[in-house]
UniProtKB/TrEMBL annotation:
Domain Methyltransferase: 48-139
Keyword Signal: no
One Gene Ontology molecular-function label: methyltransferase activity
Xref: Pfam families: Methyltransf_25
CDD domains hit by this protein: AdoMet_MTases
UniProt name for this protein: Class I SAM-dependent methyltransferase
Highest taxon in the source lineage: Archaea
InterPro entries: Methyltransf_25, SAM-dependent_MTases_sf
Biological process annotations from GO: methylation
EC number(s) on file: 2.1.1.-
Keywords: Methyltransferase, Transferase
Length: 235
């Protein structure tokens, strides 16, 4: 998996959210959380597994809304940050953090209502095997996001030291078919790449976001979208 060693560095957990979600990145954080909530719907009493949970952005949010959540990640320091968040939010009883490999999930078949992964598939070197494992342990829903090929993300990718795996809609469709999943709905967003938002102040980012939304709503919106959210069902 791309960046595996980087994500396991001791200082990454402390720097991760400051790097990713400061300044205009806060807009990204809000949009991603809304995408998760829109896809899962009412979360009360649902069993949810998050793959690559990092410092617990989504796991804590879902636990606060009444879900029973397991967060799995390869980074011990990030998991520790997540545990601290859960304690501070008062949801530690509804949230378990585990260190593990997304390619070999340590759970029986059909263990969770929903299995999700955010900011993961762009790092995946074997996306088909990861998606197959997610489907295996889910009894109802699999949700994930991708960065898209032939968009502004392709240009931004050149500036990244690790790069990202980019996906076409055809490739995602093929991955879903091979995993035995059916697409329920998809949402597409962000004509401007994430990196732009993280480099500018939040107030200026809001202006760019207004332009971004207008572009996405245009007839070419789906083709311009650099990010897609895929909500799939287990037949």
């Amino acid at each position: 998996m791309k960046g595996q060693e980087w994500y396991q560095e001791d200082d990454i957990a402390e720097e991760y959210e400051e790097k990713r979600f400061s300044r205009g990145g806060r807009l990204i954080d809000r949009r991603e959380k809304q995408a998760v909530l829109d896809a899962i719907g009412p979360v009360q009493d649902k069993d949810v597994l998050e793959i690559a949970c990092g410092t617990g952005r989504f796991t804590v949010m879902l636990a606060e809304r009444g879900a029973d959540v397991v967060g799995l990640d390869i980074s011990g320091p990030m998991l520790q940050q997540g545990r601290q968040k859960a304690r501070h939010a008062g949801v530690a009883d509804h949230l378990e953090f585990m260190r593990g490999d997304a390619g070999r999930l340590p759970f029986p078949d059909d263990s969770f209502d929903t299995v999700m992964a955010m900011r993961f598939f762009h790092l995946a070197d074997q996306p088909a095997s990861f998606l197959s494992e997610m489907r295996r342990v889910s009894r109802d829903q699999v949700f994930f996001d991708t960065f898209n090929r032939f968009t502004t993300r392709s240009l931004y990718n050149w500036a990244l030291p690790m790069g990202s795996r980019l996906y076409s809609r055809w490739e995602v469709s093929r991955l879903l078919d091979s995993a035995g999943l059916s697409l329920k709905e998809a949402d597409h967003d962000f004509a401007f790449p994430y990196g732009l938002y993280r480099q500018i102040p939040n107030q200026l980012a809001s202006t760019f976001r207004d332009i971004d939304r207008t572009l996405i709503k245009s007839p070419l919106g789906k083709r311009l979208a650099s990010v897609s959210y895929w909500n799939a069902q287990v037949p």
